[in-house]
Specification:
65% helix, mainly alpha, 0% strand, 92 residues
Length: 92
């Protein structure tokens, strides 16, 4: 299966911006979310995709519900798609 366009970049942007807004280091976020710091670095670099389990742990550590996190990611995917003149992600 091919990767969804812009998804890793959108997750990377939302994660890094939210972490910075909260003043959390990657190390502190990894402690709060119980996820390896290297994995968080990979997510922020856009080289890995979070599992659903990781998404839930990250959301909690960032003070978001999983649906809030996903909605922020959808908004970022749409922003990136618009920049590239691609069709936006549809919401149901």
């Amino acid at each position: 299966m091919e990767k969804y366009p812009y998804l890793n970049a959108a997750v990377a942007t939302v994660l890094s911006k939210r972490r910075a807004k909260l003043g959390l280091s990657k190390r502190k976020l990894s402690e709060l979310a119980m996820i390896e710091r290297a994995y968080i670095s990979s997510l922020e670099a856009g080289t890995k995709s979070p599992t659903l389990n990781v998404l839930f742990y990250l959301s909690e550590a960032l003070g978001l519900t999983p649906d809030e996190f996903v909605l922020e990611v959808i908004s970022e995917v749409n922003r990136l798609a618009e920049e590239q003149k691609s069709p936006p992600l549809r919401r149901t």
